[in-house]
Design brief:
The chain has 708 residues and is an alpha+beta fold. It folds into three domains: 164 residues, no CATH class; 143 residues, no CATH class; 218 residues. It is 56% helix and 10% strand. It is built from 30 helices and 13 strands. Strands 5, 6, 7, 8, 12 and 13 form a six-stranded mixed sheet that branches. Strand 1 and strand 2 form a beta hairpin.
Length: 708
């Protein structure tokens, strides 16, 4: 890069390459900001489900203060038990949003501020990853990583505008923490190193408080500590530097009510054990007069044997704390599908090879080049491309990131960061070889070849932005906010949910309790301002199971269950499509409403699916439509079945491959029934072909007398 001096400010010289660095970082931030802001064309709304609770929790801090927040038992959640918010939430997300709102909120509403919050922090993370990769592989690699991060599909779809969830802030804190950790370990100034390691420990705890998924960062960090004594010779430095980070992380965690990563947690134990290994291994090498490496390796073998034995024994004896099922599932893929509640969440679906390729596309190629170059560097230490300790961390982080992301779709974020780091190093090395960016690597390659190379790189990195047409980074970040399409597969935008939630707020008693599937709990609490039996925190599996059983019970048994649970209303959501036929109101069902989730209700409630759905897993049997409360609540009745590509092929009974055809039929609409329909959203009454979202509110008849 050009090093011409432009301006001197004290002892600092501003040079041309500094402006280039700033320009690329500004460009990365801007691209990231614009891509994340695309859903605004559909409406300025919070996106998905959790952001509505996070907004309400942040509003509570703004209105009542931090002390009240830490003593808040939310009576709108998990009625009648309530929810201890500070013990079961992403505390740092709420505190950070409330504090930044007080500073930067200005005249904007908190709702609007939280809509923009993920865009800001998601875009700032592109600068944080520049700092991290710069420590690992130099400025060029850092700049490339910032650009790649700004257009990374898995990261963009989990941090668009309105996504006031844990990932954007959590990733910002965690990447900044890893940067400070590596930078501190590389620092030649002990005071600077100490301050960076101290800050890294604090931010590690903050990152996990903001998003529990960041616990997976502890795995590569701990493994890195195990190999560090074999990579570096400055053992006197390591023996205090690494414990500074680890003990700071653990001590700061003690200040949080929620068990984030303390000495009694799985993550805390892992960090303590690996730090202890580093200390003991370092002491063994220091006090060995000869065969230092051999003695350290013997200790490593013993450590691995003992650790593996304890891990195996703990699986049956429960001697040590275990992570929750979803975290264990990411570590052990064989646990997939053993918990239907976890498996029912779309973001917990197992990542397929097709999805992995779509998410990372050509970066997989450059990531492979990066791995090859890192391994090659082991045999060419004079190449000065990357130090051995940074090489080790990169490979460890890459392998762990790709491994844990293979189980949950949500954790594809870790694979993306891993691939971005490896790709940045690979592309940086290729640029170095082709363009000879320093004296040690002068290039003899002719200019036409250089231009072809540069054009090829730009082309390969640009293609995923526009291809495939409906699955590229630009297209997939344009999806409307969930509350505007109900989380269905349809890209349509409606106000059905908003209208229904406003109806609940305006037409029900303030003390009313609403039963619904847990998906809609946060919406009902935040916009409807009413208590729910269950919500998206899924804290009480038993209650969710009871709701599933209630929906699939007979109307009389369901009425008894609802009264036992002290509910006053039941909300269901149906996704339907009206056929384009003249003077005939015929419909198909499916696309993401409760009619499509009923198989999960059956699995979670412990029912035999074959009794309620046919072989396609979706079409309801007569038993479902005639004898379950959910079947009665869905205001459509089956007329028959037709071939999807030939409406002339019809059948009164189910035929595999055929599609059900329905007509409108409100079955619970009188005071003589256990439930009565009291509100249907506008989509139910629209008489025009196309997709419809239908939100229905049923009031429980407290005076009903069961026939049994």
């Amino acid at each position: 890069m050009n090093s011409s001096k432009l301006l001197s400010i004290g002892n600092y010289d501003l040079r041309l390459h500094h402006l280039l660095i700033i320009g690329i970082l500004v460009l990365s931030f801007t691209i990231s900001f614009l891509l994340r802001s695309q859903p605004i064309e559909h409406g300025f709304e919070l996106n998905e489900f959790d952001p509505f609770f996070n907004y309400r929790a942040t509003q509570y801090i703004v209105d009542n203060g931090i002390d009240a927040y830490f003593n808040w038992n939310d009576d709108l959640s998990w009625y009648p038990h309530g929810r201890n918010i500070s013990a079961s939430s992403q505390i740092l997300l709420h505190l950070t949003a409330a504090s930044t709102y007080s500073i930067f909120g200005g005249n904007s509403s908190l709702y609007d501020f939280t809509i923009m919050f993920p865009v800001i922090f998601g875009s700032l993370t592109s600068i944080a990853i520049f700092a991290l990769v710069r420590v690992i592989g130099g400025t060029t690699a850092g700049l490339i990583s910032a650009m790649l991060f700004s257009v990374s599909l898995p990261i963009l779809i989990r941090s668009p505008i309105g996504w006031f969830k844990s990932e954007p802030l959590g990733l910002f804190f965690s990447i900044l923490a890893v940067y400070l950790l590596l930078s501190g370990l590389n620092s030649k100034n002990k005071k600077v190193a100490f301050s960076k390691l101290l800050s890294a420990g604090i931010l590690t705890t903050f990152s996990i408080s903001a998003w529990g998924g960041n616990q997976f960062f502890i795995i590569p960090i701990g493994i890195f500590f195990i190999v560090l004594p074999f990579m570096r010779k400055d053992h006197k430095f390591l023996i205090w530097a690494v414990p500074t980070f680890s003990f700071t992380t653990l001590l700061v965690s003690l200040g949080f009510e929620r068990g984030i990563i303390d000495a009694s947690s799985f993550g805390g134990i892992f960090l303590l054990v690996t730090t202890s290994f580093l200390i003991i291994c370092t002491l063994i090498q220091n006090f060995s007069s000869k065969n230092k490496t051999r003695n350290a390796l013997l200790f490593l073998i013993a450590f691995l044997i003992v650790g593996s034995s304890i891990f195996v024994l703990n699986s049956s004896l429960d001697l040590l704390p275990k992570p929750s099922h979803r975290y264990l599932n990411a570590i052990n893929p064989f646990l997939t599908t053993t918990d239907p509640l976890v498996d029912s969440v779309s973001e917990h679906a197992t990542t397929t090879l097709a999805q992995s390729f779509m998410f990372n596309s050509v970066l997989i190629i450059f990531g492979g080049i990066g791995v090859w170059l890192l391994i090659k560097n082991l045999h060419n230490p004079n190449q000065n491309f990357i130090s051995n300790d940074m090489l080790s961390f990169t490979l460890i982080f890459g392998l762990v990131g790709i491994y844990v992301s293979s189980t949950f779709l949500r954790l594809e974020l870790f694979a993306s960061i891993s691939v971005i780091i490896l790709s940045s190093l690979g592309i940086s090395f290729l640029i170095q070889q082709f363009f000879g960016t320093n004296q040690k690597h002068k290039s003899d390659i002719k200019k036409p070849i250089k231009f072809i190379f540069a054009g090829g790189i730009i082309f390969l990195l640009t293609v995923p932005l526009v291809y495939p047409p409906n699955s590229n980074a630009i297209a997939l970040t344009q999806s409307p906010p969930t509350i505007l399409n109900g989380g269905t597969v349809s890209p349509m935008v409606t106000n059905d949910w908003h209208e229904t939630l406003l109806w609940i707020k305006s037409n029900t008693n303030k003390n009313a309790v609403v039963a619904s599937w847990w998906d809609y709990g946060y919406w009902i609490q935040t916009l409807g301002e009413r208590a729910t039996l269950a919500d998206n925190s899924t804290l009480n599996t038993k209650i969710i199971q009871n709701i599933a059983k209630m929906l699939l019970s007979s109307p009389d048994d369901a009425w008894n269950s609802l009264n036992t649970m002290q509910a006053d209303y039941v909300v269901i959501f149906v996704s339907a499509s009206q056929l384009n036929l003249e003077s005939t109101q015929l419909y198909t069902l499916g696309g993401g409403g409760d009619e499509s989730k009923k198989q999960w209700f059956m699995r979670i409630g412990g029912f035999d699916e074959t009794k309620f759905v046919y072989s396609d897993g979706l079409s309801g049997t007569n038993l479902f439509w005639e004898q379950t409360l959910l079947g009665k609540m869905i205001p459509y009745s089956i007329l028959g079945y037709v071939h999807p590509n030939n409406l002339g092929q019809q059948s009164e009974s189910y035929v595999p491959g055929f599609v059900g055809i329905y007509e409108k039929d409100v079955k619970l609409d009188s005071d003589d029934e256990p439930l009565k329909l009291v509100h249907a959203s506008p989509g139910f009454y629209k008489d025009e072909p196309g997709h419809k979202l239908v939100v229905l509110v049923y009031e429980i008849n407290k005076n009903y007398t069961p026939t049994k």
